[in-house]
## 1
Amino acid sequence: MGANSSIDVGYIAGLARIELDPADKERLQHDMEAIIGYIEQLSELNVDGIEPTAHAVPMTNVWREDRAGMPLGREAMLANAPATIDGELLKVPQVLPGEGMA
Amino acid sequence: MSIDTKKMTVAQAADALAAGTCTAAELCQSYLNRVKSVDGQVKAFLKIDEADIMARAGESDKRRAAGRPLSPYDGIPIGIKDCIVTQGQTCSCASKILEPVVSPYDSTVVARLKAKGFIPTGRLNMDEFAMGSSCENSAFQKTANPWDLNCVPGGSSGGSAASVAASEVPVSLGSDTGGSIRQPAAFCGIVGLKPTYGRVSRYGLVAFASSLDQIGPMAHDVLDAAIILDTIGGHDPKDSTSLPSPCQGFADAVRASGNETLKGLKIGLPKEYFNGEGLTPSVKQAIDQAVETVKKLGAETVEVSLPHAKYAIATYYIIATAEASANLARFDGIRYGARAESPDLIQTYFKSRGKGFGDEVKRRILLGTYVLSSGYYDAYYLRAQKVRTLIRQDFENAGTRCDVILTPVTPTTAFKFGEKSDPLQMYLADIFTIALNLSGNCGISVPAGICPESGLPVGVQFIAPAMQEEKLLKVARIFELNRPVREFFPDL
């Protein structure tokens, strides 16, 4: 942390799969630098030997009975899809390069 | 017959229904009329399906006429924050990316409310994906504070708070990740409860930060909050983080505490919260009065210390954004929600997310992505998790010296629209609420006083150890019945 940390908002936005226009990028760059400057205050603390907390109430190996149930069904699940093929399949843009499908 | 539902609580509505003073249809119609007359100004509701509400009210009246109401609360409306799904209704999280989505199922909390006859009423505005403290980050509308329409209602559960304060619904559900129930409750002069993490199922709550999110009631008084906790709480096999312990009997405990005092109770006052910067004089005055009230009721006050309190915001904005960046990765315009068409898949992700998310959501996804990115994980995320341990230990240590902790909810009363345009300044407004989400304690915001200059309400926060809602609610109830200002209703 400290002086070494710098942020490249364009690179991070690429990792997060978010398109930013140039004005957005500049504003967010400025905001992020201020926020990261603030969170750097944690580097003041000595945390050697402290166990990390991932959850307020840690519970592990939570099992339920393995029982057959009735899922929502294809029609209900596809009702919110932006595009379908005949209401039976999710339609997505081409995934692999090459000739497009009909 | 018509009934005046202004200022009516859930308990009063249940009495009116039981006594036959009104029917569920009359009750719901009165609330709908109120929505029609004031929501043009308050703008708490994103959507409200009048036909569905009246159909459910009619069914409720039939059950009651047949002597088979589902519970004493059968026929009472309850507002739902737009990040908690109700079958057949939209669930946008006040975001463009989810604007087209209609939920195919009920969240556990809504299913449990329906099972007792409560009528889910409308979709309440919020900061987009619950990210914000003023409701100004909604992609659709700005909700106003019913006490002063030029002020924000707080956030992120701003619509939930404003709708109850304005008597558009008797009670509502909110969600609290860093104060999103308690802060708007304080700004709007109502009661807001953040239960212990794991008390209330998160199944059907759109996830923001999964290790911090908790659903809770927003109500006119502590009794109503307890009634709703009894209804929605308890183990749910559909949420692996839901606690196996029973979650019942809180309303009975609150009712029984009516004539009690606080004799024998130790109330901790964290010195860091009272000497902190930014606590405005009017808030400090109301909190000092609240301290006097609990002393008069026989409680002993002790100074406690939360030495890592000042690191809570920094810790929160690492952990919450890291979790959010993972949780919100699912919104990509492929399976549901708004898709920005593009001939190739990768560009579809980029464009759908670029157009679909607002500024604050982008900021938090980017921050979360950054703190989890290669080379920074140990410095930020792992370190924040360790500081989270220190914060939790602070509360454990304080808990050995007192039964409950009393603090302000917010450093200021409700602020004006646009007043906090800098994101970091907005984050700092959550200084007194955020630590509890990290530690897992339960907490409640209760109206304590009215700021003499602005006429805006001030809230006091009581904090109890995990699983001690009964004690928390009883203390809050006894305080509520004995505070200097008895009633908190805006003139609207």
## 2
Amino acid sequence: MIHFVKKALADIRSNRFLNFITIITISLSILIVSVFLLFFENTSRMIESWNQGGRVMIYLKNDFTLDMLPDLKKKINAMGETEVMIYIPKSYALERLKKTMSSQSTFLKTLKDNPLPDAMDIRMKSNNSFEKIQKFAQSIKAIEIVEDVEYGQSWLGRFLKIFNLFKITGYAMCSLFFLIALFITANTVRLAFYSRQLEVEIMRLVGATETFIKAPFYVEGLLQGFFGGIIGLATLLISYLMIAPGVTQNIASYIYFDIRFLSVQMILLIIFGSTFLGWFGCYLSLKQLLK
Amino acid sequence: MQHSLTHARYISKFGFSQLWGSINYLLKNMNVKNNKNSIIRLFNVSKRFGGKLALKDISLDIGQGEFIFISGPSGAGKSTLLKILYLAEKASEGQILIDGMNLARISSSKLPFLRRRFGMIFQDFKLIPARTVYENVALVLEAAGEKPSFIRKKVVQVLRTTGMEKKLKALPPTLSGGEQQRVAVARAVVGEPSIILADEPTGSLDSSSAQTTLDLLMEYHKKGATILIASHNLHLVESNIRGRNIEISDGMIQRTATML
């Protein structure tokens, strides 16, 4: 094995330009795939954090009275999704609104009646999907005394649709770049093979087995894939360290969310994937060339 | 019996002028059978390239430790004969036995093991230009899965006997033709093969280098190797032959002569 690694390294050295181009191509493909994965990992984490204890706000009808509250709570609890349930009387809601909108408080003071409804703030149990929240909200809306239910249905639903579309596009792009890298690796091996055709012929004449002939090509492919993966990830890490703090600061005014780098498992998976890519490209070429 | 039939056919084809040569051949074959173990046997071997017959009905018996010159003009079929022995080409008809192994029954996975029994020398040397002299010679032992310590020792030893020990790190293109052929001889013998096949080994060498190459081959012959040299250089054959000369023309054996 050491012999084959030495041989492959020597071949990489002797065909520096060709190998450099291949490694750079693999690293660019890995970089693009990793950017998508970084985005998906962080977005998924963000969605997960939103879904954890999804919030549902229930607005009650004007004829709601406090003596109806125990019965309402009982009905909601029976649905089995509630973690915390807080009743917000309309008077409290108005006070809170006045505090929040202190600049417009004069306008609010002119109000004769409180236009706000009584409400219930419900935090659901964790790990709820959007569909589950939607179903829960619909069940609540069916209760007679409930006027309306708000759970961010319009924007969350739209966001999820866009996210899923982006995810599919991402997968398609990843597959495309994987194929491009595979094609280029396979062609590099092909070119390396043609440049070493005499060597292969001589090896055969002196009694080398097919494994002995092929092994350096495979090791070369594996090394190209491995180094391509490492360079791609290193470039992503450098870019992440330069860009992520700025992005986190910019979005901090809207939401608290820290952008994290890829998980260790994902890094290992990417390196494994790129190494496999190098091997597979080599396999495809040699299968055609060394029949 | 097979050989007698073949030669009866051979005599009928070429008339009585070839009779003496054929009797000589038969006597020689009998001698080989009686005194030496046959290492290469060809039975009615023909090779066809498209419509053209490159070898026609060749039957041959080569004993272990024989020194054979295969002579004849260019295009006579000498190289084809060597090529079918190391299976670079497959015989279209006939049977070939190498040390008892039937070449027709050798699978592609077993082919490398057959080739390790041969040492091969070519007119164009067939050295890997990007590898040093040492690496070119070591390749044979690496392919055979020998240990690195053994390879180092053996390669240096063989390069010493061919006078190339001072050029271990040289690349083939920096060497003269004679030096490259010495490296090729070293590569051919490093695995201690029982048969050495040389296809026009002196074809691109000056007379001095050609003689050195032949002397080296003679040395390995003395150590017990069976040597087959294909050459169109009649002068070289006549001045050097210590064994059998098989003359080929138009893909057929025309004459065999034994020189002592």
